[in-house]
Hints:
The complex is a heterodimer of chains A (about 290) and B (about 250).
Chain A: E1 2-6, H1 12-20, E2 26-31, E3 41-45, H2 51-61, E4 67-71, H3 74-87, E5 91-100, E6 104-110, E7 115-121, E8 125-129, E9 144-147, E10 156-162, E11 174-178, H4 188-198, E12 201-204, H5 206-211, E13 232-236, H6 242-245, E14 253-258, E15 271-274, H7 277-290
Parallel strand pairs in A: 1-2, 1-4, 2-3, 3-9, 4-8, 5-8, 11-12, 11-13, 13-14, 14-15
Antiparallel strand pairs in A: 5-6, 6-7
Helix pairs in contact in A: 2-3, 4-7
Chain B: E1 2-6, E2 9-11, E3 18-19, E4 22-23, E5 30-32, H1 34-50, E6 53-59, H2 66-73, E7 79-84, H3 91-104, E8 111-115, H4 126-134, E9 138-148, E10 151-158, E11 161-168, E12 171-175, H5 187-193, E13 197-202, E14 214-220, E15 228-230, H6 234-247
The structure holds flavin-adenine dinucleotide.
Amino acid sequence: MRALLISDSLNLPKLLSPVSELKPSYVEAITNADSPVSVDRLLILKGDITNDCWVDVASERAKGFDLIALPASRDMREVAARIAARLGLPYVSGVTQVSIDDDIKASRLCFGGRGLELISVKLPSVLSFDLSAFEPSTGSPRSKEELGPRCDRRMRVLERRGKVAEVDLSKAETIVSVGRGLKRKEDLEIIRKLASLLGAEIACTRPISADLKWLPEERHVGMTGVRVRPRLYLALGISGQIQHVVGFRDAETVVSVNVDPEAPIGEVSDYFVIADLYEFVPKLIEALERK
Amino acid sequence: MEVVVCVKLAYDETQIPVEGDILLLERAPVKVSDIDRNAIEEAVRIKEKLGGTVTAITVVTGPYDETVLNEAIAMGVDRAVIVEGLREHNPLKTARAVAETLRRKGIKYDLILCGEGSSDQYSCAFAPALAEYLSIPVLTFVGKLEVDGNCVRAERFLETGYERVESDLPAIVSVTSEINEPRIPSVLQVMKAGRKEKVQVRSEELDLTAPELKVSEIRAYVRERLRKKLDGGMETALKEILEILREKGVIS
Ligand SMILES: Cc1cc2nc3c(=O)[nH]c(=O)nc-3n(C[C@H](O)[C@H](O)[C@H](O)COP(=O)(O)OP(=O)(O)OC[C@H]3O[C@@H](n4cnc5c(N)ncnc54)[C@H](O)[C@@H]3O)c2cc1C
């Protein structure tokens, strides 16, 4: 089986993990900067690479490959679907697990994380992987080449406001997560204080990062964000909608604090404190400081 | 401005009963896929500003309920096109069905809108695939949109930051839920929506060559928790939480 990986350089080492498990005979990767991965051939695209470029370059190279693998990031979900449509290949998105006999068998979440779907597809096919459960697989490429592609730019990029990712929450042991129960951005201070006392990382629900922009996107937990697996997940002022809940499904213990005794978070917590977080958190901080 | 908005009807995932590891889909209500409502809202706002019409297209691949579709139409859609006869969840095939319907029915479009992903499968593959089949630009995960003459300018919301982009029209745009707050139509508007033009298309009329996927199984992905309520007052709760923190090795 010949595999072609298409990924930004940061996600590439993680993407190689699930693909390696399929024991490919030859692996080539197309990326945008040098990356410590053990592949047969690493192609580094130089210059300003837009999604149109990724699609053009990858579709050109894809002939003769059985599996085309990408991360399920937002950009790469677009790129993956376009390559599949352009080449007439089947596409499965957000794959969490994969195996191969004659066909590819892939699982992925559905219904906001309430269900797990098992899908089979014939090779060649395109798969995008949910990388939150995979460890990076590092090494060094057997050969390397730089390419300066000329692409048809249907979409023009005017400006990029990047942020360097602060954390990889998928590794955190303890997480303090906040939802819309938090009333003002300034109140993040008490959450920060609590997190530092617990040696925890801060996470949030999608409205906190995407709507209110109080925290960066990589701290949003759930179906469209990160999936975490800490020993302890402390959910403060979070209602417990399934799209968020799926993100901490693999936490060992879940403690939640909510004023509403009927909040669905109660059903998916080990311990459910019915309290106002503005009363509970300062008290908890006090108790921790007293020790 | 001729705006086409693509709408999916889906089982309401928040109300799917679970028995063991089985999802009882047939007992779940049907809804308009959440982020498609943001797409409809955006389409209607563009029409309100620039004039023109809004055509909604739905390809039925799973559950269908006419009153639910009427709720979508009541937000300000002028006519609806319903493609029936498909059974599988395969976004590439759905995109092919829409591309074919637009072509065969001579439906004009300057802008095609849809949600970033559906609330059931969330593949986010429909808009990109449709763009390939129609050979037009695609802007995905758009949280801010502005139509300016023959051009769209948008802000894409990505994990790694924001990207301001533009493209010529016609184009296809997938929107995120942050783009707007969808209006909720009144009961009267929903009733009136039932009388709006509806065009039925059978999938057999269309050329639907697209690669196949086979879903062999769906099972529940829930995890049992202790569900212990700590409602015996603040002090007791605090004590218990400190105990748990210690047990978990978070504090010593
Ligand atoms: C396709 C799709 C994908 C999505 N993906 C994600 C995702 O990946 N991650 C995600 O998080 N969301 C996601 N969402 C959104 C999700 O459905 C919910 O809207 C969101 O998780 C709710 O966030 P919340 O719990 O912070 O807010 P709310 O639902 O508004 O809940 C706030 C909670 O705080 C409680 N509260 C209020 N005041 C206090 C107080 N003083 N003390 C204690 N408790 C208080 C309230 O009782 C309430 O339960 C997605 C939605 C869709 C449609």
